[in-house]
Automatic annotation (TrEMBL):
Substrate binds at H199, K203, E237, D256, K359. It holds the Pfam family G6PD_N. HAMAP family: G6PD. Catalyzes the oxidation of glucose 6-phosphate to 6-phosphogluconolactone. This is Glucose-6-phosphate 1-dehydrogenase. It comes from the Bacteria. Residues 477-487 have a biased composition (Basic and acidic residues). It comes from Nocardioides aquiterrae. Residues 210-510 form the Glucose-6-phosphate dehydrogenase C-terminal domain. Belongs to the glucose-6-phosphate dehydrogenase family. NADP(+) binds at R62, D104, F105, K169. Residues 477-499 are annotated as: Disordered. Keywords: Carbohydrate metabolism, Glucose metabolism, NADP, Oxidoreductase. The gene is zwf_3.
Length: 512
């Protein structure tokens, strides 16, 4: 008879989600993403006991390395970036499953070697023919790699086993290229085996948006145009482009994060209640809301773009975008972008959603602010409410994860004076568990074959449909020499045109 474990908290009825026998092949092992995010997340999963004991990780790259050299790279990355403590016994077991296959993406023999390596791992480590191919490489190479996987029989699962492919954003650079990318992947892998990573969806605070909205009674009744004045979604970074000129120039802030992270945030904030948290139910609601998003007619007045100029960050002098190594002095790539969007449905008609993002801004913060309408009537003297602004619910995605409710309250004293106060929920104060990294959650979900946190191709297409007209508008302005991104000093909150954009609507951006 199964006796309950007396040490287990009876409230914890959740079964641990542990991946079954499997392995991962990582393309792009020398890149930042692999070293800073993917490798540490794999170790953290192993350390938390969520990977199968025989898990294997095979690196593939154009490097003359042996298995041990690859293991050293992973070791260094884990030491530098893992979230959980380093435990020798966990490391040893994990590292036994490391293999390295040297080769180019067009090298048939290398892919033959990869096939043999995977077969050996199935034998030796019991990976059961289950493998995820993680393409942490520039999208220009996706086609070459998936074609090779197909030609060498690596993409096809046999019997009960599975094969999956994992791709990172950017999913194309416009609608047309996103469709092309989908054709490339879809030729080789069935749609249920394609996992697109938008790492924002792996963040606890992002998943919490749906929890807060749909597990409570007090938010949904006011979550609509009757009470909400507007919504601001901000993703501000204090860093510059660092060593990423090659990727960033020609891409810019709108393609880099609005098309994916910010529009995903918008869809979670604005969607209707899904019938369940299954991937299909979520996708239906996200698609519905994304297809209701429209742009205002005058894009010159309702969008803003900028480029950081020299200034200050973290107490140090920093150079401007056009002085960064690898950036053309004539580049018109934006490092700041803001757009106003409308959602044409019953819930949101008349409530603008303002999205903004930028590098080298005042500080690093991502938040969603639901700003409510003013009370219809204030039974106080004008001077009593001079300092009262609008109520707001601010969902802090990062850092300082939590939520703040801003409302008016009487200042203690003999007169009636009302001022804004904040009521705060802070993750760290409410929960003892620290949040796992987004990549831990997402990699585990790939290995479990659990799709809700991965955007579907349809969402990707809809996001490009929203953004393409803005990008075309900016490109036309560039061509005609009509306007270009406005310079803003590093360490400030972006170009004046972004402030003017809101001022036209009688509103101001929050200073987070
Ligand atoms: C990535 C962007 O998707 O997100 C980067 O390509 C950006 O430009 C990064 O710096 C920010 O991620 P996070 O999790 O630190 O907000």
């Amino acid at each position: 008879m199964n006796r309950p474990n007396p040490l287990r908290d009876p409230r914890d009825r959740r079964l641990p989600r542990i991946a079954g026998p499997c392995g991962m092949v990582l393309f792009g092992v020398t890149g930042d993403l692999s070293r800073k995010k993917i490798m540490p997340a794999i170790y953290d999963l192993a350390n938390r006991g969520l990977l199968p004991p025989g898990f294997s990780l095979t690196g593939f790259a154009r490097r003359d390395w042996a298995d041990q050299d690859f293991a050293q790279i992973v070791h260094d990355s884990v030491k530098a970036h893992a979230r959980t403590e380093f435990r020798e016994e966990v490391w040893k077991q994990l590292a036994e499953g490391f293999r390295f296959v040297p080769g180019d993406f067009d090298d048939d023999q290398a892919f033959e070697r990869l096939r043999r390596t995977i077969e050996e791992l199935d034998e030796l480590r019991g990976t059961g023919g289950n493998h995820a191919f993680y393409l942490a490489i520039p999208p220009g190479f996706f086609g070459d790699v998936v074609r090779q996987l197909k030609e060498h029989g690596l993409a096809e699962a046999r019997g009960d086993s599975w094969r999956r492919v994992v791709v990172e954003k950017p999913f194309g650079h416009d609608l047309e290229s996103a469709r092309e990318l989908q054709r490339t992947l879809g030729d080789v892998f069935p749609s249920g085996s394609i996992f697109r990573i938008d790492h924002y969806l792996g963040k606890e605070t992002v998943q919490n948006i749906l929890a807060v909205r749909f597990a409570n009674e007090m938010f949904e009744p006011v979550w609509n145009s009757n009470y909400v004045d507007h919504v601001q979604i901000t993703m501000a970074e204090d860093i510059g482009i660092g060593g990423r000129a090659g990727y960033y120039d020609g891409i810019g802030a709108a393609r880099d994060v609005i098309q994916n992270h910010l529009l995903q945030l918008l869809s979670l904030v604005a969607m209707e209640e899904p019938t369940s948290f299954e991937a299909d139910s979520l996708r239906i609601e996200k698609q519905k809301v994304l297809s209701s998003v429209t742009l205002p007619r005058r894009l010159d007045l309702t969008t803003a773009r900028g480029q950081y100029a020299a200034g200050w960050a973290g107490g140090e002098k920093v150079i401007g975008f056009l002085e960064e190594e690898g950036i053309k002095r004539t580049s018109t790539t934006e490092t700041f972008a803001a757009v106003k969007l409308n959602i044409e449905n019953r819930r949101w008609a008349g409530v603008p959603f303002y999205l903004r993002t930028g590098k080298r801004l005042g500080r690093r913060v991502t938040e969603v602010a639901i700003v409510f309408k003013r009370a219809p009537h204030l039974p106080f003297s004008d001077s009593a409410t001079e300092e009262l602004t609008q109520n707001a619910l601010v969902i802090r995605i990062q850092p300082d994860e939590g939520m703040t409710l801003r409302f008016g309250s009487k200042v203690p004293g003999t007169a009636m004076e009302i001022r804004d106060v904040n009521m705060d929920f802070v993750y760290g104060g409410a929960f003892t568990e620290s949040s796992p990294e987004a990549y831990e959650r997402l990699i585990l979900d790939v290995l479990l074959g659990d799709p809700p946190l991965f955007p579907r191709h349809e969402e990707v297409e809809l996001s490009w449909m929203i953004l393409d007209p803005v990008l075309d508008h900016w490109a036309r302005d560039d061509e005609k020499g009509k306007s270009k991104p406005e310079q803003y000093e590093a360490g400030t909150w972006g170009p004046a045109s972004a402030d003017e954009m809101l001022a036209r609507d009688g509103r101001v951006w929050r200073r987070p």
